[in-house]
Amino acid sequence: MINLILNIIWFLLGGLQMGLAWWLYGLIAFISIIGIPWGRSCFVIGMLSFWPFGKEAIDREELTSTKDIGTSILGSIGNIIWFLLAGLWLAIAHLLLALFYCITIIGIPFGVQHFKLAGLALLPIGKTIVDK
Question: What pTM value is reported for the model?
Fold first, then answer.
């Protein structure tokens, strides 16, 4: 129940905007056909940006105990390309919001979520979202 309340407050106080920012980057990635893998990740992480409480991002290799294209060297190359084109900007936005929320005691849980999303924004390839 507490996760639901926190998610609703989060959604109203910035989660909607950041989720839409992720989706915008996803649409841009889909326009360039080669960006479709990044676009899919943007939509998944955008949903996490809408409702982050009760969920976390983990390595797919940790979950499945097997390597796939996203957890191999190609995933690392994809993360470098992502970082240069979009990841840095999304991470900066999350970091700025995190600092804003951490100014007040009541905003600290929201700031912590933005810090987590900032880290995910830097290197999203090879990650998956699971319930806690």
Answer: 0.88
